[in-house]
Fold this protein.
Amino acid sequence: KEALREAVLNGKPNWKYIQAILRNWRHEGIQSVTQVEAKRAEREVNNPKQVQASADFLDAMNLWQD
């Protein structure tokens, strides 16, 4: 289930991608959900997701500047 979740979060919910995730986990010795979560947290620290803000949002934030 965690591999499916990972695939969906990465926008690639297909069987080959899920199989690749499982192969990588086996190669890395990951055998539990706790280990998956630790790996995910480590990856997020090393590669934070870049959030795109719309122009409307940025304009609204500029209203609060002094």
Q: What stands out?
A: The two ends are 49 Å apart (CA to CA). The chain has a mean pLDDT of 87. Helices lie at 2-9, 15-28, 33-46, 55-62. The chain is about 65% helix and 0% strand.
